[in-house]
Specification:
Radius of gyration: 18 Å
Largest sheet: 5 strands, antiparallel
Number of strands: 12
Distance between the termini: 31 Å
């Protein structure tokens, strides 16, 4: 299974077997993190892996999950750093899925005693992971997501590659399964919007959600050999929309 295939079957796992994972797999996770293309390459990040295979760690905060291991992502606090973090962490979660491991984003929960800062980088989010007690995947049709008909406006008949990218985007997980994204498809471009007020209600979770979404888009674009750019188009950003807020556009290079 590769990352693109993992998009269609990954699910959040909250019940883990509390046993160690091989040192080789943990090393591979760290090496994969180094290879992930950043959404914003100028933002420095750092990854920590916390061993809880003996159950010695305690959690604090909301949406904590007891697991044998936790990923802890630290980042500089630059503009869009949470979005960049969501992008990196979703790629890591898909990698774990492909390796037969389950994972779950932990919301505001953290491991007690874990560092909140590493140098000039702050802890953004933790992800629980390890061997799942049950299946770590689910069939695509069981994903509880809105349909493309509910999420998209087509200004012209969509091309096959656009439908494939949109399906991967549709399956992106989001906080509380809020699915805040909406899409407008026109002229080899997918314009990406947020539901009005989503970013304002929780800037951190809002940006994390869209980072996860962009990871799905770019992974499938790479799988399809598409030269796709995520850019903010000034002619759209200057417009006012009653129900949505413009975020970025996925543009196919000519």
């Amino acid at each position: 299974m590769n990352l693109s295939e993992a998009i269609y079957v990954r699910k959040s796992v909250r019940n883990f077997i509390m046993e160690p994972i091989s040192a080789k797999i943990l090393e591979d996770i760290g090496n994969f993190y180094q290879e992930i293309p950043r959404l914003f390459p100028s933002i420095e990040t750092e990854l920590g892996i916390i061993d809880n295979s003996h159950g010695q760690q305690r959690l604090r905060g909301f949406f904590g999950v007891k697991a044998p291991y936790y990923l802890a992502l630290y980042s500089e606090k630059n503009d869009k750093y949470q979005m960049n973090a969501g992008y990196i962490l979703e790629e890591l979660c898909l990698y774990l899925t492909a390796k037969g491991l389950g994972s779950c984003f932990m919301g505001s929960a953290v491991v007690r005693g874990s560092a909140t800062m590493r140098g000039n980088k702050e802890l953004v989010l933790m992800v629980a992971f390890g061997k799942s007690r049950s299946a770590h995947t689910r069939p695509q049709h069981e994903a509880k997501r809105l349909s493309l008909k509910e999420l998209c406006v087509y200004k012209e008949t969509p091309k096959e590659w656009e439908l494939q990218v949109l399906e991967a985007a549709r399956l992106a997980p989001s906080s509380h399964n809020s699915q805040p994204w909406r899409f407008v498809v026109y002229a080899n471009r997918i314009h990406i919007f947020s539901k009005k007020g989503h970013m304002e209600r929780s800037k951190k979770l809002g940006e994390l959600n869209f980072g996860i979404l962009f990871a799905h888009i770019m992974i499938v674009a790479e799988e399809l050999w598409l030269d796709l750019d995520l850019i903010r188009l000034e002619d759209i950003s200057q417009k006012t929309f009653s129900n949505n807020q413009y975020i970025l556009s996925a543009v196919l290079k000519s």
